Amino acid sequence: MSRKYEGLVVLNTLGTEDGVNDLVSVVAKEIEGQGAKMDEIKQLGRKKFAYNARQIEGGHYVNYIFEAAPEAITKIQSVLALNTSVYMQHYQRIS
Predict the structure, then answer these.
(1) What is the pLDDT of residues 29-56, one digit of tens each?
(2) Measuring CA to CA, which residue among 57, 65, 50, 78 is closest to residue 13?
(3) In what order do the strands lie in the sheet with 3-11?
(4) What is the CATH number of the domain that holds 74?
(5) 23 contacts 29 by C-beta, under 8 angstroms
(6) Is residue 92 part of a domain?
(7) Average pLDDT in the 10-29 region?
């Protein structure tokens, strides 16, 4: 049973030679690799953090809207945790 999810991913673009669009597509492919069907990708732009955490001043926010099975979220989180370009990730089910 597929459900619709919204995933907010903050990308650490500091020190990467790839463009932001390349990083966004790599993360989308990793999400789809876990059985999700991508509906929409919204790039929210670069935002500065309220405080410097882990020596990073800000990140590039991307909203991924996709359909996936509930057990796929755990797999997506563990795969993206290994990606050094992903600073933070949060998922919630939408209607």
Answers:
(1) 999 999 999 999 999 999 998 887 778 8
(2) 57
(3) 37-53, 56-68, 3-11, 86-93
(4) 3.30.70.60
(5) no
(6) no
(7) 88
- Which one-letter amino acid corresponds to residue 93? R
Residue whose structure tokens are 């993206």: 80
Question: Would you call 84 helix, strand, or coil by DSSP?
Answer: coil
Which pLDDT value is given to residue 23?
92
- For 72, the domain range is 13-84
Asked whether 12 and 88 are in contact (CB, 8 A), the reply is no
Other CB atoms within 10 Å distance of the CB of residue 46: 14
Place of tokens 């796929």: 72
Distance CA 3, CA 94 (A): 8
